[in-house]
Amino acid sequence: MGVFSDIFGWKTCYSVCFLLCFICVHSERHRASWTSKDFFLFVSKFGVQKTDLKNEDATQGFFYGNITTNSNFSNALTLVVVDSEYFSHFYGNGSIANAKVKPNKQQRTNICKAMFKSIDEVAYDKDCNLNGRKDYIRRVPCPKGGLCEDEDTPSNVIPKYQFTFKIMDKQIPRFWYMSIVACYRNTTNKNCSWVSSEENITIDYDIWLVNGDPVYKKWNPVEHQFSFEEHDIFETFMAFLGVYILIVPFYFYVYSKQRHSLTKFLLVITCTEAFGIFCNFIHVAVFASNGVGVKWIAVLGNAIDTLAQCLFMLSLLLLAKGWMITQHRIRGKKVVFSLWGVYTLLNCILFLWNLFEVDVISNKDEWQTWPGYLICGFRIVIMIWFIVELRNTFQSSRCAEDRLQFLQQFGAYFLVWFIYLPVLVILNTQFSALWKKKIMLCITNGADLLSYLILLHLLWPSRSILYLLKGEEPIPYDLLITGILDEDQDEVNIFKRKKKLPQNGHVKAEPNHNTMMNGFQKSTKSRYTDGKRLALLSEEEEEL
């Protein structure tokens, strides 16, 4: 394992973990401060489940919270909650105001009018649009200790909070978007025109986005806090973690029976993968209770999972070269580690891209970016190289039948493992954004888990002794006495001992009388190979 011990240093790992502690990730409870000089704040995108008309309160989406300020200004900002149909137009105009070149007062007012043009047609307003059918906007900040001005039905507001939006989707689940913008209606002259707020207001907000009335949280605790595209993610991580808890001890058993470089490497990879799943499970478990989770553990879990994926790829490349199956040394180290290094670098880029560059507003995931496409394309290149090297190993080695069978089984399955991800990414473009995350998570983690189970089956001690080269320790005696020996092992014949002949001092072999030879007959078609033939004395030697 000396080849792998220097790949990752303690200082590098410490630095990465220290950095991860300061990386923020998405949460469904939002608490922060914001100043209106930035004009536009995107709060969150949240998937609301389909409403069951027989149990509306327990299945509706609820957006509620508090928005206050310490300044004297009030109703100078607007909180907007809209679905995807209206948000694209609203956000497209709002992003202009946050450009590098800041617009002047008149331009900001024109932007406000453009942003709310479509919303004004359907949004209810007690002063300007009594015929509106949609509850999309609230004037904020709200007075401390009281409800927001637009909350004209106090019974609809969640207790101890200032505003509440109830989202009902009767047909299908949908994404809803929450934003705060520095615009307000000018009702002084009753013209209801939108104007830009020029005051610099700092607000403090504490907002929850959940599926189902908080009163019914205990009915569905593992989905209440989660956006719809993350429903069942708690159960998914719990199931995978349970399986890994079962198989990791089996990998320890395999390593204890064969202390071998290959079994040690695979044990490290499996434990790394299991630890990554454990970190993600901790995050979603805490998230289910408080809507925030443990942010740095979630990022650390994804980083560890990426590391495990790259190390697993390295193990497959080494096995394709016949490492520890047909030879002790790694042929073509530069090629192997160059391919693996590029693949690992691309995965690191995708990991960082997903943290900082993926737009949460859009419905594209990290695989629909240029790092994702590069990984899939390069994975196909590695797959072709994998096939060629496995074929060369298969043809150039004088392998026993058991060893050839291992190479065939190994190549057949892991060829599928290489190609499944590019195919899945292509199919993923046809999935709804509300289902993408769950599908990708289940299939990718399931494929990796199945791979570890197959390797566990192939490397089980009673089977792998037939094709695994001798490791750092001798083969156990109980395997020796069965007659199962490694073909490439340069052993001394264990069934004979030697003594000096008194006539000429030459050493000759003598039968081992502890070995039962009764009934043995010589045959020209002996079933023993040259390397494993018993040291039987001929009749002429016995006469001497």
UniProtKB/TrEMBL annotation:
Xref: Pfam families: GPR180-TMEM145_TM
Spans annotated as Disordered: 506-527
Transmembrane residue ranges: 233-253, 265-286, 306-323, 335-356, 368-388, 409-427, 439-460
Any one biological process term the GO annotation gives: response to pheromone
Lineage start: Eukaryota, Metazoa, Spiralia, Lophotrochozoa, Mollusca
Record keyword Transmembrane helix present: yes
Segments forming domain GPR180/TMEM145 transmembrane: 243-455
Keywords per UniProt: Membrane, Transmembrane, Transmembrane helix
Residues in coiled coil: none
Protein's name according to its UniProt entry: GPR180/TMEM145 transmembrane domain-containing protein
Biased composition (Polar residues): 512-523
Keyword Zinc-finger attributed: no
